[in-house]
Design brief:
Layout lengths: L1 E2 L5 H8 L6 E4 L6 H10 L17 H7 L4 H4 L10 H11 L5 E4 L7 H7 L5 E5 L2 H9 L3 H7 L24 H10 L14 H24 L3 E5 H6 L1 H11 L6 H10 L7 H4 L1 H14 L2 H6 L4
Parallel strand pairs: 1-4, 2-3, 4-5
Length: about 300
């Protein structure tokens, strides 16, 4: 499973990890994997989301012995047939740790062709969310970043602050991934425009990541690739999960369906949807970032 940060991959992962016949590994390329797995092993609540790495505990010595924090960036762009023996050995070790294994990525966009070589029989689930909701959420992810983003510098009552030149997008490694996107020739020139506000660069990065994953995923995995929008998942999680399991040749476990029913709620309208000014800014951002084709492929207009 792959998706942009703040696209809903975590809640989908949380549902799938309830499958009693499968082991699910969260973000195997996370640069801080060692710290997060150690916290999960000790039962700590911090760092944030450390509990999601609980499945690594039983294999932590071998996994962390093979893992390199530089994997996500040194091997960010991998072509079909390209050699990445250390990364391959690490992912193969995770994949062979149980009869059924799920790997959830947020950092594997430009390595899809390579993943198809390493795991030729897998089912590839691509979670996609409206880029406006993604960027809005990314810009306002944490209080310390909100305060930087705000035009006035102190209040959290200025939603249009996400459109400010001062808005902070660094928490999601945006600059590094924009650099990778440029090197891979997968992103529009707007990312080099010093006058482009951070939210425009965020939209461009969304299109670069989602576009290449969608294109290469279909090419490499064929009918074993499935793109699902977060909006549809939130509206009918049970149906989406049943479709995924149907493709896997299994019935969806009651534990998975039960967790989804209790936990997944249809999302409320986003602030940018209810504010005409914000909607207009995003419309301008779509044009400046040149993402209309990619966004339109998923019904985002």
């Amino acid at each position: 499973m792959q998706g942009v940060f703040r696209s809903g991959t975590t809640i989908v992962f949380e549902c799938l990890r309830r499958d009693p016949e499968a082991v699910s590994f969260y973000e195997p390329l996370h640069p801080d994997l060692g710290t997060l797995v150690s916290a999960a092993w000790r039962g700590l609540d911090e760092p944030e989301k450390s509990e999601l790495f609980r499945e690594y505990v039983d294999v932590r010595e071998e996994a962390l012995g093979r893992f390199d924090p530089a994997f996500a960036y040194d091997y960010a762009v991998l072509s079909q047939g390209e050699k990445a023996s250390e990364l391959e050995a690490y992912l193969e070790m995770l994949a062979s740790s149980a009869d059924r294994v799920r790997l959830q990525f947020n950092r594997a966009f430009w390595m899809v062709p390579w993943l198809g070589d390493v795991f030729p029989e897998v089912f590839f689930l691509h979670i996609v969310r409206d880029p406006r909701s993604v960027v809005y959420s990314q810009m306002r992810r944490r209080p310390e970043h909100r305060s930087v983003a705000l035009v006035g510098g102190g209040s959290d009552q200025a939603p249009t602050a996400v459109f400010s030149q001062r808005a902070d997008h660094s928490y999601y490694y945006a600059d590094r991934y924009l650099s990778i996107a440029r090197e891979a020739s997968r992103v529009q020139e707007v990312v080099d425009d010093v006058e482009g506000a951070p939210f425009v660069r965020g939209l461009a990065l969304w299109a670069a990541q989602v576009g290449v994953c969608h294109r290469e995923g279909q090419k490499v995995f064929g009918d074993r690739y499935r793109a699902v929008t977060y909006e549809r998942f939130a509206r009918e999680p049970g149906r989406v999960l049943e479709e995924v399991y149907e493709r896997l040749g299994r019935s969806c476990p009651v534990e998975v369906l039960g967790f989804a029913e209790e936990t997944v709620y249809e999302p409320k309208p986003q602030p940018w949807e209810e504010d005409g000014g914000m909607a207009k800014r995003f419309e301008e951002g779509f044009r400046k970032a040149g993402i209309g084709e990619v966004a339109g492929a998923f019904g985002y207009v």
